[in-house]
Amino acid sequence: MIRLLISVKNADEALDAMHAGADFIDLKDPALGALGSLDDDVSLQAVRAVNRQTLVSATVGDTHDDLDTLLNLIHRKWDLGVDIVKLPIASLQKQADYLGALASLIRSKKMKLIAVMFAEQPIDLTWIPMLAEIGFYGVMLDTADKQHHLLTAVDTDTIHAFVKYCELHHLQAGLAGALRVEYLNELTPLYPSYIGFRSGVCRDNVRQNNLLPHLVKEIKDKLYKHNNFCNKMQS
Question: What residues are labeled active site?
């Protein structure tokens, strides 16, 4: 089953997305980059509004000056009561004990972490078994530059290999990156765990603009039909 992730910038959008059928509510500030960290007070309002009715994730920003800064941000987001924290795998990956520090967080706090790989950068699938070994919840393939969508940044064969490698290592495989409803026909046959949207469900396809619930519902309906068809084929 392919689930739907919708990125939101406040509590009102969180409720709109949830009521329109989103399986994940993703808290981020679209004005601050691909993984822009949303203000903590605004995030807390959204978490309380959703009230555990669906999964909530939070992003921690695109880049970080040092490992302590990244770890503190992950702690802050987790303490807001979110279910999942998303972080860029490229951030500080060469720093000593990067994976060890994240593994310790996962063990001590029972955290669910999603690592984000940016499609414009070299996609190193060898990270996937390492992330699985330390207990990551999933990996996401996204775009850093939102002027281009995922399918222009990377070909479908590479996306399929990414999804299958995540599946092999029991990780949730997410796809995102300036996606719109019309790209579903190319993405659903790749069977990711979930597909994420922001600009494609906003007014004029501009990610800083307000979310439009009817577009969320349109995508949810298409995913429902796809999932239902797959279930019938398997039965």
Answer: 28, 86
